[in-house]
Every structure is written in structure tokens, then in C-alpha cells.
Write the C-alpha cells for this entry.
Amino acid sequence: MDEKYLIRVENLKAYYSTNIYGIQSSIKAVDGVSLKIYENEILGIAGESGCGKTTLLKALLGIIKPPLSIFYGNVFYRFNEEEKDILQLKESYIKKIRWKLVSYIPQGSMSVLNPIRKIKDTFKDFMKTHLKGIIEEDKFDIIVKEHLESLGLPLEVLNLYPHQLSGGMRQRVTIALSTLFKPKIIFADEPTTALDVVVQRGVLQLLKKIQRENKNTIVIVTHDMGIHANISDRIAIMYAGKIIEIGEKTHIFSNPLHPYTKYLINSLPKIGDKTFKKSIPGTPPSLANPPLGCRFHERCPEAMELCKNLEPEFVNTGNKHEVACFLYRGGKL
Amino acid sequence: MNDDKNNKLLLVKDLTKIFSIGPVLSKVKIFAVNKVSFDIDLNKPEIFTIAGESGSGKSTLARMLLGLLKPTYGTILYKGKDITQINNSKSWKWFTTEVQPIFQNPFETFSPLNKVEDYLYDTAKNYNIIPKTKDKSSFLKEYLSIFGLSYDEIKGRYPHEFSGGQLQRLSIARALITNPSLLIADEPVSMIDASLRMSVLNLFKELKKQFNVNVIYITHDLSTAYYISDRIAIMLRGNIVEMGPVEKVLENPLHPYTQLLRKSILEPIIEKSIMEEEIKLSVLEEKEFTAIGCKFSGRCPNIMDICKKKEPQEYVVDDRIVKCHLYADLLMKV
């Protein structure tokens, strides 16, 4: 992996703010995230529900709609050596690059496909909207067929309606749709959560195949560490609105540094291992009113006095493995 | 047979549920649960897992075991009594004290308008569990301490003020108020965060050890099934295709479907990356339900001629029951 990054996030703070009867409150869903996403990699973002991973994804895609607002920070896209702040760009420009350069695979594929149109018509509609004037319409059929064939999907699905497909096939058709224009970067939000184990494997296989062939970047958000272990190259661990550890998959799994990551990795049940697994004491903090200092200190077995008041910064422990914890700063700032 | 009845906590035999779907004149019969038989011993508490993908009929089976759904045919004997034939409220009350459910979403288990403590107290009152000498707070204090929960923590609080893991442990505590012998838990941890999931699973283990509670754990997640259960039954389109001790079934699966499941589990082990070998997915689900013969025949890598014509029998191989034609010859030889 070289230093060629596609996306650079600088100290991003995205809050949900509400104003009910004059009472202002904000949920700090993403609170100070900095991150670089490189070319030709699969980056996994892991974390529990409510840790802000979907909000981070929304910000990365530039989908900012009330009550979500960007409080601070930038998200830079870097295409052709030129950096552009997605949060400052006009909607019309974002529309132009969406699907072609930046694409998105949603979670519930059931509600994505138009239920009253055949799959082939959905594909045609999609191409008409985005490729009008660029490619002649009679070539659409060939492009779609070639694309499905390259992904190993049966062509018979084109003549079916969404409800006739099984859940896994529907999700794969959605993936085919979002990768039709060979985007440079694909964001996937829990792409397999509602699917069965066997189907899940099939869908992930497809994602990996796309990445391997097109050498593009995939950002995959999921709480399931099993998925990360199998397809991600790098993993970022989020906790209560912050990234607390980031590194290559092998380092995260074989040598987790942050106490939270340690718990997370060690509490995973595996087949062939019946030893007692402990769960993390306590519960995740509320994002409306996160604790001072390190956000994990209330549940951390190794918490020090320092952790209660000050927020730890990232420490690079070598091998591009970074962790935000005072333990790796020798208990000092 | 009579002897068998008395030694079993639960004896399920040929349990079948048929749903008819489609328009009036061209109804299709779907065997949501097809001739399922299994049993649980009376004096040997165990955690029994029923595992399967969505559409395998595991939740339909759970609802029949809880007496919420009438089977098309087949029997469910609980402590020798056929629960499908219960018709008076006294027997029903006895059955509900003995068997308690735990549902998937703890936020739906509790009414959002009631305090959690009232919920626990009301259950105890409805079943006349509380001794007359005790008031609400002293009863709950004593009761919750058994599960390592503190009354002060839940006092006056509503369901939305708890995390999923806490609430699920409370719903398990609620289910245990009647001192049941059997818990039926339908996907109890699938809605709970990874960091809290183990606390719920460990509670089940603890209950089995300390209070001799049997648990039927219904799940699609084979790794957690391996972690807590003693025996496992794998379901496919209404049929139990393999059943036996969890170590044997998951470490060395015999049925081609179990083998496929085992291969598909994304384990959090980095040395073992999947994706090397392509697997076959079903295109249409309805086709599998209505398939003649083995339901897995459309996707099975070891398919034979007979598989598409005749439904396989159950064969006993290596301590377990396997429903697959592959093992027919093996049995002949023995």
C-alpha cells in the first residue's frame, strides 16, 4: 500500500442537533475523526451499534441532511492529483461523480429495487439517468449483460421482478447495479447483515472479486468482526464517535492494542474453542453526553487517573498501527 | 414407549406444520416444519440448539413448542402431557410456568410505557410466587441478586433507559420468575451488541449449571451455538438434516448442507481466509420448499439420482442422526 490516498478526513465532527421546545441537544455521533483511505484497499470500519459508523459513512459520501450537520472538519476527495472538499462542493457536482467515481451499496436491498419493474428495466433506467448523451441507448443491453457475466450472475435474473429473487440474489443484483460504472471507491454499509451465512459468503465473495479485478477501493462498515477478518485489508475500530485504533488486519487481530479492541477480539466465539469468554463490563456511553477524557475509561480495566480527564491522541506504534490510548504513551500526555 | 415418556422432559414426534400459500385455486403446500422429532432428557439439563437459515422453519418450530401455534399433525409431550391438546386454563397455566419464552428483541418484550420493575413484579403476582411476608422492593432485591443484577439500578426506570444487553438479561430474569424447567429462546442475542452478547450467553450457561434449567436456543449463528450448547440440530427447509453433539456436528459435519454452512461461517481468524472456493446459492427459495426428494438436492455437490426422487431417511452415523442418502450404504455395511 503506497501513500496514494483517495480520501482524507481531517478532524471531522458530525452532530445530530435537535431543538425541541427550545431545548437544544446534540448527539455527537462522529466526534473528531481523522482518517486516510488509500487506493486499492478494503478498509473495514468496525464498531458496535450507535458508535457512529454509519454517520461517518454519510459524511464520507457527502450526504448531509438535517438533523445531521457538520460541525467541524473536512472530507477531501482526491481524484487526478486534485483535492476537493466534498462538504463544500455543490450538489450538482456530487451528483456527477456519484455512482461513476464514488458508489454506495445500501443495506436493505429489498427496498432499493423498484418492485414493479423488471431487473433489466431498473438497469436501463439507471443508465439512462446517468449516461444520457454519453453512450447510445441501444448499447445498454450489451453493457449490462457483460457486467453481469463478469460478476458471474445468471442472466435470467434480468427478466425477473425483485420479489422473485432470493434475498442473496437481490443483494448481489444491487451490488451489480452500484458497480456498473466501475467506480473508484465503493462504500458498503452492512452489506450482508440481513442475509444468511451461506448467502453472506456469496455476497462477500462477489465484493472481493470486484475489488481484485478493478483494483478499486472498498470501505465496508459492519459490526461483524468475522467479515473484517475475511475481507478487509485495514480495520478502523470505532467507539463512541471516535476511531480508537486503526491498522492492518493482521496487526489488529494478532496484536490488538486498545483495551476495547482486546476485549472485542477476545470475546469472539469460535468453533473448536469452548473456553470461557468474558464480555466487556458496563455499557457504551450515551453520545448525547459522552464522558470526559477517554470515552472508554468507565469500562476500562486499565484506566488511570489521567484517562478520566484528558483525551488520548493517536500513537503510531510502528507498522502503520495507530492507537488512541495513554497506555502506549507511557501513561503521559 | 411409556417408559420413554417418563424419562423425557420434552418429546417431540413427527411434528409437522403445513402452510398453504398462493391464490385460492392454485395453492401451494409448504411444509414449514416437516416430521421433526427430538427429545430432551428429564434429569440432565442441557442447552439444545436449533440452527438454520432464514426460512428453515426454526421459528415456526419454536412457536409450536410454546403452544402458540397448532401443529398440522404430530405430538409434543412435555413431561408426558400432550401440549397440543391442552384445553383448560389450569393446564395452560401449569405449562406456562414450566416453559417460558425469550424473544429476539428485548425492547419489544417490555411495554415501553411500564417500568421494568412493575413488569417483573406483575409476573410474580400473576403466578402467585411472592410470599405474603414480602413487599415489592424486598422481593425484587432478593430475586435480582441471584442474577447479579442490582435492584437499585433498575428502580423506577423504563425500558428505553437500558441497553439491549441489560434488558435482555432482565427479560431472562423475568422468564425465570416462575421457576421454569425449560426456556425457549428465539435468537436472543442477534439484536445485542458484540461487547454485551457474551454476558447474555454466559447467563444461559450459568442457569443450566446452577438452576438445572434447560434451554432451547434457536439461532442462525453457529459460533455462539458452539459456545453454549451441548447438542445441535441443523434445519433446512423444515427438516432436521443433522442432529447430535455440537462438537461432532460442527467440527466434523456429515450432511453436505452442514458442510456448506460450516464452510460459510466467517470466523474471526485471519489465517483462514475464505473466498478461495466458490459456493452455489439458491436462486428461488420457493423451489426448494416444494422440491421432491431432498430439499438440498438443487445445490448439493454430492448429488445422486435418488436425491431428486426420494426423501432421505434418517440414519444414525457416529452418534448423530443424518438425513442424507449418502449414508444409506454406510449403514448397510454395518
Notes: The first helix of chain B runs from residue 2 to 6. The two ends of chain B are 26 Å apart (CA to CA). Chain B touches chain A through 43 residues (CB under 8 Å). Residues 156 and 201 of chain B are 27 Å apart (CA to CA).
